[in-house]
Design a protein that fits this description.
This protein is an alpha+beta fold. 21% of the residues lie in helices and 32% in strands. A hairpin with a 4-residue loop joins β9 and β10.
């Protein structure tokens, strides 16, 4: 009995203890799960609202009025829209000039095979994914039943591929502003077959197509700042085409197969620029007719493809290819075995709006102006104070290996920056814009950052706050910089809050450096938590200026807790994060995609040209024309440009402001750090260059302050002419390495690179 009593007493003691332990463990697990939990974004990008000007034309269909086998389906004062039911082919005719653009090829002279002939003749085309085979099948409208219903301003068409048990609905509308929008709602797509699925969809891929060199003009590519591909006869020189994913590649899906109908014969060797804007265009110079295509829904799943004549056909054509599914390899063992799988269909509406221009606006500058007006009208771009400032960024500290740990390598302390500011002020350089990198505890590679915790090697919290206060008094715009995407596994716990690729493997970004070999990507939900914490900490210390990178131009598919999340989800989450952050902080974003332009006070690292592919003919400042006079743009760093004279003139031509990356100490001190690619940054070396750039470019920008670019012309002998809305005309001569500015016909400024004024 005594033993039984003792056991009972022991149980009374142990049971509460066990309950406490169980509750504690459950709370820890719950905390871990919460930190990595997947939250729903507070806004949706999948179904963009129509702009205020999207008023549908009232002209009714008239089958008695025909054009090249098409009948009139809608019209307004400026344009007519013609349709051919069976092929969904359209013709857009300008009533003012009589010019027109066709969307299909009626007769191909028998040069194309059956698959190609069907593609050329169809307004909409599908790449069909059959099970998990690696070759998708072309399916054109000759295999479908098309039922057209005229509606006010256009038509709807129900497309059924009975043989393949799939289909969709297409709606095409002509608006009063002359634009035409083609839409395939996600809800209209059906797939009843277990094996036949939609892989990719092309909506009017041949609109404005030309054959060989029959027309003068070019295709506009959204590569970098902008690029042109001329419509001249290429004489079979190219067996490949331009094909780039809008907003960059998807690191969460490692594609083992090229899922394009038109395999690129040659690999590109130069690193491509991001596609920051979901646009493309076609210009017929001899007809003075052009269009700008804006992807108003589905950009996250789109690829821009531009084919010069000779690349598979005799036609020049440009389009958006909408990826609905992708193949990927999923490992079946640790020894390297894998199986090919197909992703689920991406659930987004497809919508492309074609803005037509004529006469003097039928060129890339006119299309850029049209795009600016559209962005401002829809609120996708917000006008900011666009005043000239020279960007002088500083690296605070990095780390190098030391015995069994790492030690700080301070490069530019807060006192150093104040000294530099004082010296530049004495030289007349006062209008400055600064990002401070590597200010956080642990240096520039210590990621993520969730609080105002300053590295002691650069001066600490109080010293940095004092510097920022002094900078504000001096009129200097000073921003703390951080990467909101990456996590360093050596400086942070990355067990629960980082992404896995869709093949279930942890995504690792290799640095190829000695101190920190790799980074992981945070889940969007974790980024949201960290951003909230960081901004709260900054605000507590009366700091509001924050510069962000990483999430500004990256979106991906990932797997978390057994579920897959597509890149549309990532984009929506990042937009929600930035929208919330912009309420409590002044944001500037590094090379942001168009979805986030409304949240930034400046565009950082704006490319001055394109990727220089072999099949592009000319680099043009399309995005610069969109932004100039509306939002300030800052260039990549002057330090690392091989041809600084040409780069200087590009800044004049594009209206982009100069950027320098500076350190007080010599960059050789970074040899054993992850920043060892910062090979030339010492302030004393660049001081005179900074002062020269400031003086010349400030004087130039004062002449065009607040003005937008109305026209941009490429003249003979490597000369360009830029016309501003205030009447200033800038002529840049790359051969003579000089530029001149005239106002009302009188020259008011001229400068030759390398010579004193």
């Amino acid at each position: 009995m005594n033993k039984l009593k003792k056991h009972k007493k022991l149980l009374f003691i142990l049971i509460p203890v066990l309950l406490v332990v169980i509750i504690a463990v459950s709370m820890i697990v719950s905390s871990m799960q919460t930190k990595g939990s997947i939250q729903k974004p507070t806004l949706s990008l999948r179904n963009a609202e129509k702009s205020a000007s999207a008023v549908v034309s009232t002209g009714a269909a008239d089958k008695s009025k025909t054009l090249n086998g098409h009948y009139l389906v809608a019209e307004n004062e400026g344009y007519e829209l013609y349709l051919q039911d069976a092929t969904l082919s359209i013709i857009v005719r300008d009533k003012v000039t009589g010019a027109m653009m066709e969307s299909t090829v009626a007769e191909d002279d028998g040069k194309s095979n059956a698959s190609w002939a069907g593609f050329l003749k169809s307004g909409v085309n599908v790449d069909m994914q059959v099970s998990n085979t690696t070759q998708q099948k072309k399916v054109d409208l000759s295999a479908a039943t098309v039922a057209v219903t005229p509606i006010t301003g256009g038509f709807t068409a129900k497309v059924d591929y009975a043989t393949y048990e799939l289909g969709y609905e297409l709606t095409v509308l002509l608006y009063e502003d002359g634009s035409i929008e083609a839409t395939i709602p996600e809800a209209s797509i059906y797939e009843n077959s277990e094996t036949n699925k939609i892989g990719n969809i092309y909506v009017y891929p041949m609109l404005g197509r030309t054959q060989l060199g029959e027309k003068e003009g070019y295709m506009l590519l959204p590569d970098g700042n902008g690029a042109l591909m001329y419509l001249n006869d290429k004489e079979g020189r190219f067996g490949s085409a331009y094909s780039q994913r809008v907003y960059g590649s998807d690191v969460g899906i490692t594609e083992s197969y090229v899922l394009s109908l038109f395999w690129n014969k040659y690999e590109t060797i130069n690193e491509s620029e991001y596609i920051l804007a979901p646009i493309y265009g076609m210009v017929h110079s001899d007809d003075a007719m052009a269009y700008l295509a804006v992807i108003t829904s589905g950009a996250e799943g789109a690829t821009i493809e531009a084919y010069p004549n000779g690349a598979f056909t005799d036609y020049n054509w440009i389009t958006a290819k909408f990826l609905k599914r992708t193949l990927y390899n999923e490992p079946t063992s640790n020894s390297g075995g894998s199986v090919v799988k197909v992703t689920d269909r991406l659930p987004y509406d497809i919508s492309v709006r074609f803005f037509f221009t004529r006469n003097d606006d039928a060129n890339y500058a006119g299309l850029a102006n049209t795009y600016r007006e559209y962005l401002l009208e829809t609120g996708e771009l917000a006008a900011k104070a666009d005043e000239f400032r020279l960007r002088a960024d500083f690296l605070g500290s990095d780390r190098e290996n030391w015995m069994f740990t790492t030690k700080a390598v301070p490069m530019t302390t807060t006192e150093d920056i104040q000294t530099i500011y004082d010296e530049l002020k004495a030289a007349g350089v006062t209008d400055l814009f600064t990002l401070y990198k590597g200010w956080q505890d642990g240096g520039v590679c210590s990621l993520p950052v969730d609080s105002y915790d300053v590295d002691g090697s650069i001066g600490g919290k109080r010293a940095l706050k004092k510097l920022m206060d002094e900078a504000e008094k001096a009129g200097i715009q000073f921003y703390l910089y951080t990467d909101a995407l990456r996590a360093n596994p050596k400086t942070a716990n990355t067990t629960f809050n980082v992404i896995k690729k869709i093949d279930t493997r942890l995504f690792t970004e290799e640095t190829h450096k000695e101190v920190y070999e790799s980074y992981h990507y945070l889940t969007p939900s974790r980024t949201s938590e960290l951003m909230t914490s960081l901004i709260k900490s900054l605000n507590k210390n009366e700091i509001s200026n924050l510069a962000l990178s990483g999430i500004t131009n990256t979106m991906f598919t990932f797997r978390y807790s057994g579920e897959n999340y597509d890149r549309l989800y990532t984009a929506e989450m990042y937009a929600s994060i930035l929208e919330k952050a912009a309420e409590d902080a002044n944001l500037v974003l590094e090379e942001p995609i168009s979805t986030y332009w409304k949240y930034t006070n400046a565009v950082l690292d704006m490319p001055v040209k394109d990727s220089d592919y072999i099949f592009t003919d000319e680099s043009v400042p399309f995005l610069s024309i969109v932004f100039k006079g509306v939002v300030p743009m800052y260039s990549d760093y002057v330090n690392f440009e091989a041809n600084k004279n040409e780069f200087f003139l590009k800044l004049v031509e594009t209206g982009i402001y100069p950027s320098f990356y500076l350190t007080m100490e010599d960059s050789t001190d970074l040899y054993y750090t992850n920043s060892n690619d910062l090979y030339s940054s010492k302030y004393s070396v660049y001081k005179d260059t900074v002062i020269e750039y400031y003086n010349i470019l400030k004087e130039f920008n004062q002449l065009v302050a607040g003005a937008t670019i109305d026209a941009h012309e490429i003249l003979a002998d490597k000369t360009v002419k830029v016309t501003y809305s205030n009447g200033a005309v800038v002529t840049v001569d790359y051969e003579k390495e000089s530029f001149a500015v005239a106002v009302n016909g009188s020259e008011v400024m001229s400068y030759k690179v390398g010579e004193a004024e």
